[in-house]
Amino acid sequence: MPTVLIVGPYRFFFVSLDRGEPPHIHIQREKMIAKFWLDPVALERAGGFKPQELNKLFKMTQENRDFLLERWNEHLGD
Fold first, then answer.
1. Predicted pLDDT of residue 37
2. What is the DSSP string of 4-72?
3. 21 vs 50: CA distance, rounded Å
4. What distance in Å separates the CA atoms of residue 42 and residue 23, rounded to the nearest whole number?
5. How far is CA 27 from CA 9, 18, 52, 78, in A?
6. Which of 22, 25, 44, 48 is deepest in the core (most CB within 10 A)?
7. Distances (CA, A) of 14 to 19, 24, 26, 52
8. Mean pLDDT of successive 10-residue segments in the chain (78 residues)?
9. What are phi and psi of 22, to 5 degrees?
10. How many C-beta atoms surround the C-beta of residue 11 within 10 A?
11. Who contacts 5 (Cβ-Cβ below 8 Å, separation ≥6)?
């Protein structure tokens, strides 16, 4: 599970077994893990985060979308 970005308490990472899915990112803080699609950016799973924090994660994902897509293609692209 390569970590591709850390912003404050949030770890952005991929799961290698997700290769067959569309590009997405997992975001973890403590025991909570959200999942966002990257193209377009959309919440797939809240993973225990509250709505206000999910909005923050959505914005961070949007701001870093191009970088995250590049890392996805490096790690999981065909």
1. 98
2. EEEETTEEEE--GGGTTSPSEEEEEETTEEEEEEETTEEEEE-TT--HHHHHHHHHHHHHTHHHHHHHH
3. 25
4. 11
5. 10, 14, 15, 23
6. 25
7. 9, 8, 6, 23
8. 93 88 96 97 97 98 97 82
9. -60, 160
10. 16
11. 11, 12, 64, 67, 68, 71
Closest residue by Cα to residue 75 from 40, 39, 25, 36: 25
Amino acid at site 71? R
Helix (H) or strand (E) holding 3: strand 3-7
Range of the domain at 16: 3-76
Domain count of the fold of the chain: 1
Place of tokens 């899915």: 21
